[in-house]
Automatic annotation (TrEMBL):
GO biological process, one term: regulation of transcription by RNA polymerase II
Organism of derivation: Moesziomyces aphidis (Pseudozyma aphidis)
Name by which UniProt lists this protein: Cyclin-like domain-containing protein
Key word Glycoprotein present: no
SUPFAM superfamilies membership: Cyclin-like
C-alpha cells in the first residue's frame, strides 16, 4: 500500500497530487508516447546522475541535489521524455531542476555557473573530464553553445514551474531518517547505510510512490535487514506533560506501520537495486 494507514495526518491536496501507484508508472506520458518502461527508468536514472554530477561541480549540498531529483521525477509523471522529435531531454530537464532547486533551497547560483556545470558535466572527452575534476571550465558567454544552454534552461525552468504547479516545497525522507535515528539511538554505521539506500532510491521513481516518512522507514528497515539487525531493538523514551513516560517503538518514531515500511523496503530492493542491476547487465 502506498497510502499510509498510520496515525499520520491526512495528505494535503498539494502532497497527494504527487503520490502515484505502481500501475501509474506504466501509464506515464513517456510510456503512453511509445517509450518502453525500462527505457524510461534508465533515462530517469541518467537524469539523476546528471543532477549529482552538476551538483558536485557546483559544490551543492545533498539537500539541494535531492530536491532537484524529486523535481525531475515529478516532472516526468506529467511530461514525456524525449522520443523522436517530441518530449523533453532528461539532461536538459536535469539542468533546469538544479537551477530551480538552488533558488528554492536558498543556495543561489547564477545562471552562468549553472551553464558551466552543465557543459562541463556533459563533456565526456578526456580534456572535459579533467576540467570537470578541476572545476576549471568556464563557458564563453558569446558562444552559440552557451546561448543554447541559457535558453534551454530558462525555457525548461518555466515548464517545470507550470508542470509542478509551483508546488516546490519538498518533504525529504533523509531529514526524517536522521531525526528518527537520532531519537532511537541508532548506530552511526547503520544510519549511513540507510542514508545511502535513500540516495540510491532517488535514481528511481519510487520517491513518487511512497510518502517521505514511509520511504525513510523503508530505507531503515532494509538497512537493518541486510545487516541482520532486528529493528525492534530500537526504541525511544516518551515523556508526557504530566511526567508520565512510555517507550515508543521504532515504527512510532517514524510514524508508520511496520507493514508499509516493509513494503517500501521490498520496493527499494526490487525497483531500485534488482531492476537497475539487471539493466546494467
Amino acid at each position: 500500500m502506498t497510502a499510509s494507514t498510520s496515525t499520520r495526518a491526512a495528505l494535503s491536496a498539494a502532497d497527494s497530487q504527487w503520490l502515484f501507484t505502481p500501475s501509474d508508472l506504466l501509464l506515464t506520458p513517456s510510456v503512453l508516447g511509445g517509450l518502453d518502461p525500462a527505457e524510461e527508468k534508465h533515462r530517469r536514472c541518467k537524469g539523476v546522475h546528471a543532477i549529482y554530477r552538476m551538483g558536485e561541480y557546483l559544490r551543492l549540498s545533498q539537500h539541494v541535489m535531492n530536491t532537484a531529483c524529486i523535481y525531475l521525477h515529478r516532472f516526468f509523471m506529467r511530461k514525456s521524455l524525449q522520443n523522436g522529435n517530441a518530449g523533453y531531454s532528461h539532461y536538459e530537464v536535469a539542468a533546469a531542476c538544479v537551477f530551480l532547486a538552488c533558488k528554492v533551497e536558498e543556495s543561489h547560483r547564477k545562471l552562468p555557473s549553472i551553464i558551466d556545470a552543465a557543459m562541463a558535466s556533459f563533456d565526456k572527452s578526456p580534456a572535459g573530464q579533467q576540467r570537470w575534476m578541476e572545476r576549471s571550465f568556464r563557458a564563453d558567454p558569446a558562444s552559440k553553445e552557451f546561448g543554447r544552454w541559457r535558453d534551454t534552461i530558462l525555457v525548461n525552468e518555466e515548464e517545470l514551474l507550470e508542470t509542478l504547479c509551483f508546488d516546490l516545497i519538498v518533504e525529504h525522507p533523509h531529514e526524517i531518517l536522521v531525526k528518527a535515528c537520532s531519537r532511537l539511538g541508532v548506530d552511526t554505521w547503520l544510519v549511513r547505510l540507510a542514508w545511502t539506500t535513500l540516495n540510491d532510491s532517488l535514481r528511481d521513481s519510487i520517491c513518487v510512490t511512497f510518502e517521505a516518512p514511509v520511504l525513510a522507514a523503508g530505507a531503515f528497515y532494509r538497512a537493518c535487514t541486510v545487516s541482520q539487525v532486528e529493528p525492534t531493538k530500537f526504541s525511544a523514551k516518551w515523556k508526557g506533560k504530566e511526567g508520565d513516560e512510555a517507550q515508543l517503538a521504532w515504527t512510532d518514531v517514524f510514524d508508520v506501520d511496520e507493514d508499509e515500511a516493509a513494503e517500501a523496503a521490498r520496493a527499494i530492493g526490487s525497483d531500485v537495486y534488482a531492476s537497475h542491476e539487471q539493466h546494467a547487465h
